[in-house]
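Tutorial, part two.
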Amino acid sequence: MTTTSTTETCETVAERVALGESLGELAEHATSCARCKLVVDMPGKLGATRHEVDPGLGFAARMTVGAQQRIQTRRRRRVAAALGTTVAAGLVGVLVLTRTPAPSSNVNTASTETKVEDPKLEPATDAELRALVDLADVHRSAHLSANWRQIKKPLSPYRKLLQGVITP
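Running the prediction step on this input gives:
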């Protein structure tokens, strides 16, 4: 073979080894050529060398910072989810408490309309309004107390009964 064809053959062997293809008809040349033999043995030698990769300076610090960022992100998401759930639950509660009940299907709507528009209902008179305001006077009503003499009088027979049972 000439040197150009040998060089081309060696390049073809190197190309097939790089692509991971089988050598096929070039296997005979690879066993006889010293240059091709080194190329064919190279992947095996690279695979055999196992050494630990040095993560570099500051690896622990970078990992700690990354972990803290993830924890903070998760915490923010948890707080946002809890807040959203609370708002949604509050909204549902407000809607349930403030909704007007739907009229029942077996109730005649015409009869309810006549009850609402009943002409017998008259506005309250001034005397009735004064009585309501007087009853609503909480400050005056809070100072009133019961007449204990009237309350004790009907309880006196029970006191005599208890004196015989319970010794003071």
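The mean pLDDT is 79. In part three we will examine how such features are distributed along the chain.
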